[in-house]
Amino acid sequence: MASVLAALLALMVLPGRALHAAAPQVPVLWDARERLPKPDLSGLQRLRFLTTTDFPPFNFLDGEGRLSGFHVDLARAICARLQIAEKCQIQALPWAELDGALQKDEGEAILAGMAVTAEARTKYAFSRPYLLFPARFVMPKASVVMEPLAEKLKGKEVGVVAGSAHERMLRAYFDGFDIVTYPAPEDLFAALKKGGVDAAFGDGMRFSFWLAGADAGDCCRFAGGPYLAPEYLGTGLAIATRADDAALAAAFDYALQEISRDGTFAELYLRYFPVSFF
Prior knowledge:
2 domains; D-Maltodextrin-Binding Protein, domain 2; three-stranded parallel sheet; about 20% strand
């Protein structure tokens, strides 16, 4: 097994960020030195975003039946930045119908939590990722430690969901832990809260929802990280267009970079993820 140092160096980190962040923060996925060209969308008649209603907090129906969520507000922010708000529409469909609607020209883009995979790239043109999902450690507040966390947890019991990508990542990149596996996230959370393990390792977003909820009882907090390893965790979420519409995907890149630069993305992210998983 590779040494801890070599393993940590192998992890992909955000541009301009140190591997060992002191505390969770808003993700910045754009190089501040890069300037993308402003697109000319004068010939675009309309921009229909296709999404779903069953992926909270990304897409859902609120108490009054209105389509809401991070993706909905992100689409509106993109349209505002591209100065085409009057041409924009957002339509919700079942997940299984999104691809067909896009290919039949019933929409121009899918914004519904689509992962960028090699197979997906054969069918779609993608924007750059707008959100990544890091792995995180969570520890009881009374015993939390900061980086170099890998050294401080040596010989300690670290829980992880059995058979998950996070278990494979934990075993590949960290030495010296006593790894304890659990059949489901709920079992892992219960063990951490009761002191059955010294730390838990897993999906940062799922952890953030648990930390913010009543079940956690304010017991715990993030420790170390965030850790990004695309070979285990994927390359994040992106906006999909038809394969022959790469120009529109590039226009989304421009808008995403601009709303990251002016703070709009940070405001949206913290609105829907108040316990940041970065």
